[in-house]
Design a protein that fits this description.
The protein has 67 residues and is an all-alpha fold. The chain is globular and about 35 Å long.
């Protein structure tokens, strides 16, 4: 399938930052955990939230590695 019909999925939170739950990420972004889960699995598309989520996960990873 093309990227037009199947959105790019995110790296699952459990792989990127195993200590961050979907619930914690959802609280941070003011959304439902299911919304993030659907974006992760490529079942839903929200480019802005996906970009912000990726950035936030990377920031969390960098912070954890720095300590």
């Amino acid at each position: 399938m093309s990227s037009l019909t199947m959105p790019e999925s995110l790296i699952p939170v459990s792989d990127a930052c195993p200590w961050i739950t979907l619930q914690a990420a959802a609280i941070h972004f003011g959304t439902w955990p299911g919304t993030l889960s659907r974006i992760e699995r490529g079942l839903s598309r929200d480019d802005t939230l996906a970009r912000d989520y990726r950035s936030w996960l990377a920031q969390q990873q960098e912070t954890a590695e720095g300590h």
